[in-house]
Amino acid sequence: MSLKALRTLVTIARHGTFARAADVLSLTPSAVSLHIRSLEEELQVSLFDRSRRQVSLTEAGHLAIERAEGILAAYDEMADALVSGPGLRGRLKIGAIHTALAGRLPAALVQIKAEHPHLHISVLSGMSAELARRVEDGELDAAITTEPVPPYPANLDFTPLYQNRFWAVAGPGFAGANLRELLASQPFLRFDKRAWAGRIIEQELRKQQLPVSEQMELDSQQALTHMASMGLGVAIVPLADEDLQHLPAVTLLPFGEPQRVRHVGLLEHASSRRRHLTAVLKSTLGQP
């Protein structure tokens, strides 16, 4: 019995269709179908009811899913348990928002690699809401995201690690201007509203009744800060205290009354069996 076929079965059940499972697993639809046919032939049962346009699990299929999840969990944990030498052993697949990738995460990964050479961590980038969905679906073991903004999956746990403060950034020539004047006179360089940080910014703009003239919308704190420093407009971005030390010459104003703060942390499934591995991420990223 192929572990790949079992993963395919579980992925179809999680995502609802053969086509979506093929995308998630980076397989062709014909390969997905072949995996399922081989399982059905080996088990001598029909796992899916194909009599309707939308295939659905049979009773045997539901039972097979339960057993397959247990087998895959045991297999995934086996490498973690076979520790030889110092440190943790295993694999983690995590997601991370762009600000973490450009900030604390690289140094944390270097430290983890030195202390735990048998712990292999792969990283995918994305926005917080997208990464939360992928953690919920089991595509990622955990994700470094902004503190969840409703609505978000209720079966996920969030552990705060560090925080950023929100700042309005403009070119150095605007020193002495207040935020309302800047936003009224300059193009607004918006943090993507689909991102959780973007939603926080939008909420505060409405709270203060600050009208803006939108020029562009990006999900990159670095790009927005750089454009604002060049005089292309006003950006509102979350910045860590260490980021402030490396900014070019800019006009910097606190955003929010009181200044808004976002927490960045680790998001993982409430039933995760990888917490002994994600614990090292929490401890390392939480260091100042």
UniProtKB/TrEMBL annotation:
Keywords: DNA-binding, Transcription, Transcription regulation
Protein name: LysR family transcriptional regulator
Molecular function via GO: DNA-binding transcription factor activity; transcription cis-regulatory region binding
Pfam families, sorted: HTH_1, LysR_substrate
Domain HTH lysR-type: 1-58
Keyword Transcription: yes
Domain of life of the native organism: Bacteria
Taxonomic classification: Bacteria, Pseudomonadati, Pseudomonadota, Gammaproteobacteria, Pseudomonadales
Protein family membership: Belongs to the LysR transcriptional regulatory family.
